[in-house]
Amino acid sequence: LSKPHQAGPAGTRSLRASRPVSAGHLFVAGYVLLLTAFGVLPTAYGIYFAFSNAGNTFAGLSNFIGAYRDFRYLPAVGHVGLYLVIWLAFLVVLVTGLAIVLQQLPVRRLSRMIRFLYYIPGALAGAASVMVWLFMLDPTVSPAAPLLRLLGYRTFGQVIEPGHLAILFAMIAFWTGAGGWIVVMSGALNNIPLELLEAARIDGAGGWSIARRIQIPMLRKWIVYMVILAFAGGTQLFVEPQLISEASLGVAGRDFSLTQLSYDFAFQNNNVNYASAISVELLVVCLVVAALFVTRSRFFDAS
Amino acid sequence: MPPMNSTIRVLSPTGPSRRRALAAAGLAAMVAVAISACGGGSSSSSGSPMKDGFSQAPQSSGALTVWVDSTRVPAAQAYQKAHPNVKLHIVTFDGDANGSNFLQTKVDLYNRTGSGWPDVVFSTQQNETSWAVTAGYAAPLSEGLIPQSTLSNFATGALSVCTVNGKAYCLRNDLAQVVLWYNAALMKKWGYQVPTTWPQYEALGQEVAKQHPGYLVGNAGDTFTPEIYMWASQCQASDITGLRSVTVNVTTPNCTRMASLLDTLIKAGSMSKLSVFSTAFDKNEKGKVLMLPGPAWFAGAVFDSTSGLNVPKGQIAVAPIPQWPGTSKPSTGNVGGGTWLLSAHSTHLKEAVNFITWVTTSAAYQGDLAPGYPAYVPVAKVWLAHQASSGYFADDISPVLQQAAGQVWTGWNYGKWSNESVWAATIDPGLTAGKTIVSMLPAWQAAIKNYATAAGYQVSS
């Protein structure tokens, strides 16, 4: 057996070295410029806000304490935490599972078609795809109304009762986001050398053992990559609860997530400092989680 | 078409990376803050001449930018028609309905960037002055811009929601006094008397539930439900006592008597838990509404509306809202009644004043086109005459509406937070889950206190 190609993101490194250096710099320069203007500088400014008060003097941790003491803070942390658990579990299990099942389908054309179908919702504009769900979840207009009625829901209010929100948002996020990841995973699966799979089959491995012993281990870095990005995106949950809140006239979804609370602080209570404190907290949490995953999974380990 | 400017645009971008894009947008806004931080925001016109009670920006010519909700687009269009020489830039937005705070969000950003304020804004809310005055956005109108003779023609108390420290900062569009709408044809057919007290109303509601199941005597599923029932019952939910102080006391008998009435009728089945603006209500309750306590604007927005109940001509009539036995003075609630604000930053003050005066006082709009009861008394008469001539109602609605306009209980005011969304988030999910309103009153008390405190109010009870 020949040594398998690296299936991780680090695998393309050898290709890059052969390109002229100046072109590379040019490409990166554009990115660096935009990253500085719209990423680094605003982040730095946000950090400045988080540690200063309305009079622009140093405030220590008082903004963090103030935001923490707000009556909406802890419930929002709970909501986002629950949502993340549900969504990440959905994402890891179903995306990996579906990608592998698609890969193993004997009819290639069918597999490609289903993959495309999975991807379509992700191609809708973000807010638009949530709008679709507003109709899906209202038993009076939903095409899935018989199903909703079967579950005992007769009005929109019953469907979006507070206890349902985390799972509903996870479903919406999965529906809009999973297709893209399935495409990515399929790409990664295609990178697994055929000889390897063939050898396994000759050794008597069935679909399940191939998935468990070859495909999933070789997808590990991609799964970690997905979890890091999904975690960062998930902590910033905003569009779904905000739109549900508007559509339900404030009955559900208001103050659901931390970003909504941050938005309320900034634009309703005119308190940019508390808002920034929450943003900085989210940034720190995402960085810590990403660092944990990267080190634990030896993400950048090219060997 | 005027450019659409809806809240959804704020929530913006696309695809899997939309949250990151959103974060980027937020951060970009912060950059804008950085650029303008030194300006300190609100007064870009320091050093400008003080006139009409505020320092005015240098005046220039150009298009007048007005923001209206979709219902008020005809007002702006009617103005354009009557004044073809004025250049008008009409922008539609949500009118801040349901506590969206769109205007405040935008003004906050414009204050930071130092430009962009609309010259005139229509808002469906009555609490805009609670922030717009301190934000330096709303111009005082009673200090020279609008003559006293015009201001004094607004209905008694109509401008109180606009008044801060004795100066009027907005003009009231319409009154929204609560009355008892009923289907006169059905009442006559079934031999019912229109109730004049709440106990009579409750008894009739129970009878209807038994004799004509499926028919409604009211609904309790709107964000403004407390402003119909609790307000009329003199429940102390939002008694603003100072610039930043409020008294909240919603577990008193004034509140519990109405809450338990609603609970009884919800249980009986003649009080709907749906919103009058929900698709389910329009679909299921068409032709099933016997009575419906609600504001004056229910006339055009709910009954005589193809997108609402669409009740045929000659059936709907109006009666005063029922009273509690033993109360000395009749009292009713109020649901909205929009306001018009004028920007202190406007560089077209003359045109802006002309516009805001015309849309609130002209018979051509308020009398003939407006869906709600005009706050400006001279045109209210025109509006009532117009309603009578349309022949839609079973009898003359004028006396009842005119009387109710002066009976709105004054112990309920608008703070900086939205009491409508507090009710919606606290009570509605519980109602859906089958809890009683009485059992949720302590939670309502706590929620109002929380939101009022977060908005900077001292809350006492």
Q: Characterize the largest beta sheet of chain A: strand count, sense, and whether it forms a barrel.
A: none
Structural class of chain A: mainly alpha
Task: Give the H and E element order of chain A.
Answer: HHHHHHHHHHHHHH
Radius of gyration of chain B, Cα only, in angstroms?
Answer: 23 Å
Percent helix among the residues of chain A?
over 70%
- As a percent range, the share of strand residues of chain A is under 5%
How far apart are the termini of chain A? 18 Å
| H/I helix tally of chain A | 14
Percent helix of chain B, as a range, is: 25-40%
Report strand order across the widest sheet of chain B: 4-3-5-17-8
Model description:
With 303 residues, chain A is mostly helical. Chain A contains 14 helices and no strands. Helix content of chain A is 72%, strand content 0%. In chain A, α4 packs antiparallel against α11.
Key structural traits:
heterodimer; A: 303 residues; mainly alpha; 14 helices; 72% helix; globular; B: 461 residues; five-stranded mixed sheet; three-stranded antiparallel sheet; 19 helices; disordered N terminus
